[in-house]
Each structure stands twice: as structure tokens, then as C-alpha cells.
Design a protein that fits this description.
CATH superfamily: Methylpurine-DNA glycosylase (MPG)
Shape: globular
Number of helices: 3
Radius of gyration: 14 Å
CATH topology: 3-methyladenine DNA Glycosylase, Chain A
Structural class: mainly beta
Order of helices and strands: HEEEEEEHH
Number of domains: 1
CATH architecture: Roll
Low-confidence stretches: none
């Protein structure tokens, strides 16, 4: 499992999204299980919009969690020039340490299957994802 440096995320969000497709994301859950998610779909957003989380203006490579229509969405801060931007993780094949797998076909389901809920959101919020694991 290799680390991605902060510079990886300091680029156009469309380019970062393309480079992340097919990569494995290792998530340490609130219960200390390591879950692997192979990223299958990623959306890219540039500029200030009402859908940006308030943490979007953070350092590139920082994970933020926001709620949309009662669903938790995982976003990673990127940068395009001086404009805040982000990518949203939309779908992934998930492998659990117990040996079973699951395809999370939308952002909300992906977050739920990785254990991100109202109760555990603060555990994940603002983590730098270029560390060993998130």
C-alpha cells in the first residue's frame, strides 16, 4: 500500500479524479477494522458553490464529510489555481477483512459501507488522506 503525497492532490480536480480511478483506498473504520475500497467513480467540482462543504477550502489531500439529502458524502480537497475545488468519492468495490465484498454504487452507500455515520463522522472529518490510512 503506497502513500500519495500532498502534491498529488494539488492539481486540477478532473485530473486528480482520473488519476484516482482504480486505486485502492484503505480506510481504518471507527471500530479499527481496515477496509479496502477500489475507487470506481469519482466526481470533480471547481469553484465556490453552495454544495461545497465549509471545509473545502482546506489543504489539498484532506478528507471532508458533508451531508446531502441525509447521506454522508466523502470529499477530498484539491486545488485549481487559487480556486477551492474537490472530488467526491461516488462508487467503489469494497473488501472487508472478513473476506466478503460489496459494490457501493453511490456516494451515500459508499460512506455507510465504510462505517461513516452521524455518530462516527467526526472520527473521519478533516483527516489527511495521504497518511498511511484514513
Amino acid at each position: 500500500m503506497s502513500k500519495l503525497p500532498p502534491a498529488f492532490y494539488s492539481d486540477n480536480p478532473e485530473l486528480v479524479a482520473r488519476k484516482l480511478l482504480g486505486r485502492d483506498l484503505f480506510v481504518m473504520s471507527f471500530s479499527k477494522r481496515i477496509i479496502k475500497a477500489r475507487l470506481c467513480e469519482i466526481a470533480a467540482y471547481v469553484g465556490n458553490t453552495t454544495s461545497h462543504s465549509k471545509e473545502t477550502k482546506c489543504l489539498p489531500g484532506t478528507l471532508t464529510i458533508r451531508t446531502k439529502m441525509r447521506q454522508k458524502l466523502m470529499e477530498i480537497c484539491t486545488i485549481r489555481g487559487k480556486e477551492p475545488s474537490r472530488i467526491t468519492l461516488c462508487a467503489a468495490n469494497i473488501e472487508y477483512p472478513e473476506g466478503f465484498s460489496f459494490f457501493a454504487k453511490d456516494s451515500g452507500m459508499l460512506s455507510r459501507k465504510l462505517g461513516i455515520t452521524n455518530e462516527t463522522e467526526s472520527f473521519y472529518q478533516s483527516q489527511e488522506i495521504y497518511g498511511d490510512k484514513i
